[in-house]
Amino acid sequence: QGQLVESGGGSVQPGGSLKLSCVGSGVSLDRHAVGWFRQVPGMERERIACIGSQIDAHDGKAIYADSVNGRFTISRDYAKNAVYLQMDNLQPEDTAVYYCAADTLLFYIFRGLASKGGGYDYWGQGTQVTVSS
Questions:
Q1: Which percentage of the chain shows pLDDT scores above 70?
Q2: I need a surface site. Which of 22, 31, 119, 131 has the fewest CB within 10 A?
Q3: CA 36 remoteness from chain centre
Q4: How many CB atoms lie within 10 A of CB 27?
């Protein structure tokens, strides 16, 4: 059974940067779009960024939530089977647990062109990001 392993979370001051990593273990990420989500306790999970895959129509393309557009950058390294989220100019409102997920439909879901009620193919365990002074 494949899984996603996240790392890179931590605590930073406002204006700081972090880079999160999402590595596929037992799952080949080149066949899946990969997205990043975040969740604050008591709040709904927020979709924040997604990158397309080699097998959908969005290879090399990225989509961002308005809340992070211009500050966060999603990228992938096919050779390392990894997807990254570079987070710059972090603010206290970015504090959350960050998760990555992989699914063949994910980029379409982020675009609002598809839905999937049964959950995505793969999820990571989450990594905490805390932004405070």
A1: 99
A2: 119
A3: 2
A4: 17
Closest Cα to residue 3, out of 22, 26, 31?
A: 26
- Token pair for 28: 């080949």
Helix/strand/coil for 114: coil
pLDDT digits (tens, 9 = 90+) for 17-50: 999 999 999 999 998 999 999 999 999 999 999 9
Question: Token pair of 39, please?
Answer: 């969740």
- How buried is 57 (Cβ within 10 angstroms: 0-12 exposed, 13-18 middle, 19+ buried)? exposed
Q: Which amino acid is at 39?
A: Q
Check residue 107 and report its DSSP letter: H
Q: CA–CA separation, 9 vs 20, rounded Å? A: 6
Residue 59 dihedral angles phi and psi, to the nearest 5°: -60, 125
| CA–CA separation, 52 and 62 (whole Å) | 6
Tokens in use for 68? Answer: 């992070």
CA distance 16 to 127: 17
Task: Tell me which residue has tokens 């969740």.
Answer: 39
